[in-house]
Specification:
By secondary structure, the protein is mainly alpha-helical. The protein has 24 helices and four strands. Helix 4 packs across helix 5. The protein is elongated and about 95 Å long.
Length: 602
């Protein structure tokens, strides 16, 4: 035998081409998880949307946590409970606030290839998993204090339960008795998830309802059973041939199939409806009405809802929704910038309609129910990928089928080259996003300026001196109004975070009340300089912080926002003056001096 070739003589290109797809699938999952963790590890400051929810989590106890939130925010019962409990267990900070989203985002990515395994080939699973792993919105939302990553996780879980139920009913790879037992198990799992989903993920109700519709259609019009790979219809399976196992399905009467489909639909649908109604009565209605009152959600979601019901407007709205930010996988934007993804989805639908209609039966109803809610002006459809994370697994699955459809079929070598090219594009997106996170750790320089300024003030403040807020603790009207702005929310959230770090979970100043006798400093956030305030506001400030008790110690100029350059703001630090010692009273004249004064006068 001759000498073995050295490493330099190996053909790395051929070695990469001949790697099994399962290895690339694991690599894609690991890269996506690492990218999500890396973004969390950057310790970015809270931006305004996160600060809105952080204020409620940091300033409330368990008894008031589920009342309508500040700033008109709407979040599910489960998301609030998990996030609040995390703050009680972990040290207060951005990591503790964002950790539930990170866990949900990573879990969704890890479970996704397993969830779609009964529905897709290994090649389609690879493409769909790469897309979910490197797409901008799933990565970003997995490290933000918002409930969208939990929406994605529950959508994947529901898809996994429904996919296995369908696979067991259309496959010949398992014995009949084992298939029935497994199907009952996944049916029960789907029932449990339907009971939980309204409390943890609001848009997850659309996915659960869509699965019920899809399973009903598949029970009523069952697809032709598919054989497992390498199984011939004439090979006996547990003493029965494949043809023998198909015959009972062929003999099912339409009335029997209709009765069975109705029973299963009601068994899944009634618990979902009852759980949703109970959640709406106890929690959701007040939260939604408060959010609509404060944020005017219909106006906020205007672009993601049809303006009227004319045919032209409906077509415009649907075209904008399906080519805009909702389809930004891996990248995309509004006004038709996601057209490439839309074409891949259409190709995937075309392929599935001819070969696997059962996949469409459980994928498309979730889109239809979300669009129906938009027609009723209740939930947006399109406009943003954030509010459509519950549709992300279906979009990635359809894009995976569409991509596999356009790859060359006449040459295995060329097809493997396409696989390698897709992997390289995905790797490039991972590196590009990591570089972007390093170069721009914050969404807005004003976020970093607010956090750094408050941290510097706290470092300069003695440990026995408390930091109070002029708006919340002294109830100055114009200061309270300023706290209602985006910069005001970030100021409140970062101040509460600093207070939680110092007190280690003790009551916040707002909850404990103001003790003016204890040493304290007063922070005033204002979007205008004190010299620019109206006379009425200056008088209110003077009345709350009189010059004989407080003096302006420091003025901190914040960095303008990158949104329009006008959102700036100031933080004014007022120090408490030491109390003036009382003057010594003059002693009254004694009996000896009185005659002297009298003699002098005389």
């Amino acid at each position: 035998m001759g000498p073995k070739p050295c490493v330099a003589d190996r053909n790395w290109g051929m070695w990469l081409l001949h790697q099994p797809l399962s290895r690339w699938l694991v690599l894609a999952v690991v890269a996506g998880c690492a990218l999500r963790y890396f973004r969390l590890a950057m310790l970015r400051p809270l931006w305004c949307d996160e600060a809105y929810i952080a204020v409620s989590l940091l300033s409330r106890g368990w008894s008031t946590l589920f009342t309508p939130l500040e700033y008109g925010q709407v979040a599910s019962f489960g998301f609030l409970a998990i996030s609040w409990l995390g703050l009680q267990i972990l040290p207060a900070g951005e990591v503790a606030l964002r950790l539930p989203s990170l866990v949900a985002g990573i879990a969704a990515l890890v479970l996704f290839p397993w969830a779609i395994r009964p529905l897709a080939t290994r090649e389609v699973r690879l493409f769909a998993t790469i897309l979910l792993a490197v797409s901008i919105f799933p990565v970003r939302l997995a490290s933000e204090l918002k409930p969208y990553a939990i929406d994605l996780l529950f959508s994947v879980v529901i898809l996994a339960c429904a996919a296995r139920s369908i696979r067991l009913s259309t496959s010949l790879s398992q014995p009949l008795d084992a298939a029935r037992k497994s199907r009952r198990f996944w049916f029960a799992a789907l029932l449990v998830v339907n009971l939980l989903v309204p409390w943890i993920s609001f848009p997850g109700v659309f996915v659960a309802g869509g699965m019920i519709i899809g399973l009903f259609l598949l029970e009523l019009f069952p697809p032709v059973p598919r054989y497992a790979e390498g199984v011939s219809p004439l090979v006996p399976v547990n003493g029965l041939s494949g043809i023998t196992r198909i015959l009972p399905w062929k003999r099912d009467e339409p009335a029997l199939r209709g009765k069975r489909s109705l029973i299963h639909a009601f068994a899944l649908g009634i618990p979902l409806v009852l759980s949703t109604c109970l959640m709406w009565h106890l929690f959701g209605r007040d939260a939604y009405e408060h959010g609509n009152q404060v944020m005017n959600l219909k106006t906020f979601w205007r672009d993601a809802m049809p303006a009227n019901y004319s045919p032209v407007e409906l077509l415009r709205w649907l075209a904008e929704a399906h080519t805009g930010a909702m389809f930004a996988y891996p990248v995309g934007a509004e006004h038709g910038a996601s057209i490439v993804t839309s074409i891949a989805v259409l190709l995937g639908i075309w392929r599935l309609a001819r070969r696997q209609p059962e996949v469409l039966a459980i994928s498309l109803p979730a889109f239809a129910l979300t669009a129906f809610a938009a027609l009723l002006q209740k939930y947006p459809y399109g406009g943003s990928a954030r509010v459509a994370q519950h549709l992300a697994p279906f979009i990635c699955l359809l894009v995976g089928y569409g991509t596999a459809f356009i790859l060359p079929r006449w040459s295995t070598h060329r097809r493997r080259l396409c696989h390698l090219a897709i992997l390289l594009v995905g790797f490039g997106l991972v590196v590009g996003q990591a570089d972007y996170f390093v170069r721009r750790p914050a969404k807005d320089p004003n976020d970093t300026s607010l956090r750094a300024t408050l941290a510097r003030i706290r470092e300069e403040t003695p440990p026995d001196v408390r930091l109070l807020c002029a708006g919340e603790d002294f109830r100055i009207e114009f200061a309270l109004h300023n706290l209602g702005s985006e910069q005001g929310a970030k100021f409140r959230a970062n101040r509460l975070l600093g207070e939680h770090r110092v007190s280690e979970g003790a009551a916040t100043p707002a909850a404990a009340g103001v003790n003016k006798a204890a040493p304290h400093r007063v922070l005033l956030f204002s979007r205008k300089h004190l010299s620019e305030l109206p006379a009425a506001d200056q008088e209110a400030l003077q009345a709350a912080l009189p010059s004989d008790g407080y003096r302006l110690k420091k003025t901190c100029d914040l960095v303008p926002s990158n949104r329009d350059g006008l959102h700036k703001g100031y933080i004014f630090v007022f120090d408490q003056l030491p109390p003036t010692p009382p003057s010594e009273p003059q002693s009254p004249p004694n009996a000896q001096t009185a005659p002297q004064i009298a003699q002098g006068r005389h």
